[in-house]
Amino acid sequence: MSTSGTDAYDHHAPNDLPPLVRRALTAARTHRFPYSCRPEQGRLLYALAGVTHGPIGETGTGYGVGLAWLVSGAPPGTPVISVERDPERAATTAGLFADRPEVRILTGDWRRTADHGPYDLLVLDGGGTGKTPGDTPADPASLLAPGGTVVIDDFSPSRDWPPTHEGAVDLPRLHWLTHPALHATEVGLAEDLTTVLGRLTPPAPLAHGVIC
Fold first, then answer.
1. Within a domain: residue 169?
2. Which of 18, 22, 34, 91 is found 20 to 30 A from 169 (Cα to Cα)?
3. Which of 12, 80, 68 is nearest to 36 (CA)?
4. Rounded to whole angstroms, how far apart are CA atoms 111 and 189?
């Protein structure tokens, strides 16, 4: 969720965007919703969705801009689940994707994603990131398929280690970058925007020793 994500498309020619993204962007603008997925993030989601081999999940549908990037990039027929807390937004966005039977938009807390996993790609944008007080981070080991990827966006660049934000250690970002179940890294998308990507690591094989 980007605070000025919808406005970030003002300088992009409509023909440069997938049709589904244009449709969702129109809805976001109509409803004066500023928090859409930025185009830089959207293109990353498009690319990641294109190499998925199983279901895709998303938290925080909004008016479906990020979801549209995912669906546009995914192989045909890939199941995509998105969860939105606001009933009005969920209903409106479900209408936008009514002609895409592989897409389901659920109303409720982000934890509803657990009912439809595991996912090959999971985008945490509206809960489950640990960024806000009371928001428990999602458990990638229970939500991802083996080798699956989790995406946590909207971090500010930091050259420090541990990473900092506004003069303090960025604990949510550190949580994901050092998560024991993930191989994780940070990807810079713009001068003011980075994203954390984590791939679920397989469990270590049991050592076979000789007992004397």
1. yes
2. 34
3. 68
4. 28
Residue that the structure tokens 């954390």 belong to? 196
Residue 177, amino acid: L
- Count CA atoms within 13 Å of residue 91 on its CB side: 3
Do the beta carbons of residue 81 and residue 30 sit within 8 Å? Answer: no
The contacts of residue 27 (CB under 8 Å, 6+ apart) are 33, 63, 64, 92, 93, 96
> Is residue 136 one of the residues assigned to a domain?
yes
What is the span of the domain harbouring residue 37? 7-200
Phi and psi torsions of 95, nearest 5°: -65, -35
- With a cut of 70, list the residues of the chain below it in pLDDT: 1-3, 203-212
Report how far residue 37's alpha carbon sits from residue 58's, in angstroms, rounded to the nearest whole number: 12
Question: At 153, is the secondary structure helix, strand, or coil?
Answer: strand
Confidence (pLDDT) at 208: 56
Alpha-carbon distances of 61 from 69, 103, 171, 209, rounded to whole Å: 12, 12, 25, 50
Q: How far out from the chain centre does Cα 191 lie?
A: 20
Query: What is the model's pLDDT at position 212?
Result: 42
CATH number at residue 41: 3.40.50.150
Cα–Cα distance, 22 to 205 (Å, whole number): 47
The number of distinct structural domains making up the chain is 1
CB atoms within 10 A of CB 166: 6
Helices assigned H by DSSP within the chain: 19-30, 39-49, 65-73, 87-96, 140-143, 171-177
User: Is 51 part of any domain?
Assistant: yes
Residue type, 149: T
